[in-house]
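Homework help thread (please don't just give me the answer)

Our assignment gives two proteins as sequence + structure token strings and asks us to describe the second one. The first is just a warm-up. Here they are:
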Amino acid sequence: MPAKAYAAIACLVMLLPVCCFAQQLSTPLPEAYQVAQSYSCGRTCGQVGSCREAVYQWCVCGYARADGDHDGVPCEKLCGQSTPASLARVQDLKAEFGCR
């Protein structure tokens, strides 16, 4: 096989993963992943702006102090007191982020 043929095959083999990866990036991500990408770890209850972000800090980032009273509701000024409705909302958000 001529050297040019080897070079062409090597080029295809090297570019194939790049093409496949680029195609995967063009596939829309589920909404939960898009939301999660808009948050970053390292924020406190006083720095987050929503219950959704508070739950993200708590269950994704591991900010245990967000639920200081261990009632299952982080950042209670944002997520509300420990009521069945608040607990259900937090559970839904945790599931959305893939937390237990």
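The one we have to describe:
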Amino acid sequence: MNSLNSMRIAAAAARPLRTLSRGAPAPTTPSRLLLQPQQHHSRRLYSSEPPPRPQSFNKTFSRPIFKVALMAIFTYQLAYYGWLRLEQNEKRGDLNKMMADLEKVVAELDPEGTMADLKKAAREVEAASGRK
């Protein structure tokens, strides 16, 4: 069995190498491989189609590129809107906190409650106009 395998290996080593070019003979020694000039083909050997024109690139890829750009713009606008809403909520919370602190200061400075009466009147006016 070993002798059969060794004979197959020797026979395969003795065969000339095949190359990818169709008409060139196969070099038999490694030095010929290094000295042989490489051939560059102007057309693809594995395809029967002509090379694609730039017009077909635009026809093929313009719609997907447009979709990706549109999705990117939509995502940016959505993130921007969300960021603005968070900022507004934060500012509104800060202003409400500041108003509560100022109302406490006014309540401390006005022990008689005249500001409380004004506040009550302002609430009645807001309720009558439909605002909260």
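TA reply:
I won't write it for you, but here's a hint about the kind of observation we're looking for: The first helix runs from residue 2 to 14.
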